[in-house]
Amino acid sequence: MTWTQRQIDVGPFPSGLHLITREVIKALPEIARCRVGLLHVFVQHTSASLTINENADPDVVHDLEKRLADLAPEDYPYRHTSEGPDDMPAHIKTALLDSSLSIPVANGRLALGTWQGIYLCEHRRRAGRRQVVLTLQGELAD
User: Fold this and answer.
1) What is the mean pLDDT of residues 113-141?
2) Which residues have a Cβ under 8 Å from the Cβ of 67 and sit 6 or more positions away?
3) 3-class DSSP state for residue 70?
4) d(CA 44, CA 31)
5) What's the CA gap between 118 and 95, in Å, rounded?
């Protein structure tokens, strides 16, 4: 059993859901040698999150973004407002989605479904680069 860990920087992105599957795979070429394993993906921020969702129809991402905005609107009377009107809604969206994912690895590939991709969900309007920690545990082919 082998462990590999890398940190990647992604973005900066505008508010929205951004497909990062390629960046993740590029950062960990060991995935291609992994017969069986698990990839843990963790974003080190409280105003950005991760999700696995459809990567074929852009309407899915659009609808998700709209619904998240409805669930955590900027015009709600939040107490935490010192970092701007988009900050507390960003924290709520992160709590609803999550800051980490676990993805099985099988035969040298992420075991994602046909239309699934890894998304970094940027919940701030003007965020900087985001740090993502990738941890691969698995049985590597010789």
Assistant:
1) 96
2) none
3) helix
4) 22
5) 17
